Amino acid sequence: MSDTHTPFDLSNLQVLVVEDNKYMQLLLQNVLRMFKIRRIMTADDGVQALDVMRTFQPDIIFCDWNMEGVDGIELTRKVRNGTESANPYVPIVMLTGRTEARHIFKARDAGVTEYLAKPLSVAVLAQRLTTVIENARPFIRTNDFFGPDRRRRAVPPDDAPRRRADDMEFDEFDSEFAA
């Protein structure tokens, strides 16, 4: 895969970019257009994103973590669990400079699908798009979580011995999530 291509026709994809930095918004829009994505909406924060989503049904959301008002984590929670959410299953890719494991875990626990560290590269953005399409993870609902399966590896068969950590705790860090 080259830097500007994905193995899919993305021309019918609808994307919502939630980013308070206008330069980053523009950069993301330009990169997405390189992938032949034409239907791109933007929002400056989570509140505006929720408003946009009343009339625009994104197939994927790229959102920044740090925004005034409703940040990327709270937006993810509202999309996953909000009573007015049109599509709680929409893939959400978190874009952030926060690369510490505790931040990655917090995003994962909020229901983020993929985590992408800034600064961005076209190749890594293309890889994340491909991952979201090719490897859509099943969604899990528990008493305190709804979102993509947080385990990055194959789930053991039902009769396999389980550790307490398998019941939704994260027992090892998968660095691919934060690349």
When the domains are counted, the total is 1
Low-confidence stretches: 166-176
> What is the annotated CATH architecture?
3-Layer(aba) Sandwich
Taking the alpha carbons of the first and last residues, their distance comes to 17 Å
Question: Could you walk me through the main structural features you see in this protein, from its secondary elements to its overall organization?
Answer:
There is one protein chain. By secondary structure, the protein is an alpha/beta fold. Helices cover 30% and strands 17% of the residues. The strands form two sheets. A five-stranded parallel beta sheet has the order 2-1-3-4-5, with helices on both faces. It has a two-stranded antiparallel ribbon with strand order 6-7. The longest helix has 13 residues, at 22-34. The protein is globular and about 40 Å long. The chain starts with 13 loop residues before the first strand and ends in a 31-residue tail after the last strand. Mean pLDDT is 84; it is low at 166-176.
How would you summarize this macromolecular structure in one to three sentences?
This protein has 179 residues and is α/β, with parallel strands linked by helices.
What descriptors fit this protein?
179 residues; Rossmann fold; five-stranded parallel beta sheet; two-stranded antiparallel ribbon; 5 helices
Question: How does the SSE layout of this entry go?
Answer:
Layout lengths: L13 E5 L3 H13 L4 E5 L2 H7 L7 E5 L7 H10 L10 E5 L4 H10 L3 E4 L4 H13 L4 E3 L4 E3 L31
Parallel strand pairs: 1-2, 1-3, 3-4, 4-5
Antiparallel strand pairs: 6-7
Helix pairs in contact: 2-3
